[in-house]
Amino acid sequence: DLFNGHASGGGNAGYLELITFYNPKIKVLYTTGEYAPYRNKKNQYRYDYLFERHGVKLARHRHVEQLPIDDFVNNSDVIFGIGSISALSSYKKDEKNIYQILPSTNSELSFINHKFINKSFLYFGGNGSIHKGLDLCLDIFLKSELTLHICTSKYEKDFWDFYEPKIKNKKNIIFHGFVDIETEKFRNISK
Predict the structure, then answer these.
(1) Is the pTM value of this prediction over 0.70?
(2) Theoretical Cys-Cys bridge with 179: which of 151, 153, 174, 190, CB 3.0 to 4.6 Å?
(3) Does residue 111 carry a pLDDT above 70?
């Protein structure tokens, strides 16, 4: 009677086939960001802004064009989404019931307000470095004495080919790679 399918970003390309096959009474669309055309426009703006600042064009990541997102939205009764109210409001044109799911984290983590006493910051993210603003963080910290800890993979080779030579000798920018949040290493970095 209820179908809950992930159909945003690089999600389930079989969403329409599944709801047709099961014919549920209630179809829930689960999203993890903005409505794809809106997101793509914002994403392109970020890549254009990188080009404007550095004269470099990198391969686009986090761009959605392969999925018929309008069909997913139009064939759903309700939308549950992880993201900001602003991100979810990008779906409002479809007059759907939209409910926000707040991002989760490990309940044992404690981020104390240090009032910037130690002048140390953490970037923690997955792929989509430009989409998520790592380029902006690096540009700022390259001109600063503040410390930036980076916890992410080097999935986007062209991004790292461009930024790695710039940060290689900077003692205030510390690249940790992928770090599991359940580890002592992560707890030490995030103190």
Answers:
(1) yes
(2) 151
(3) no
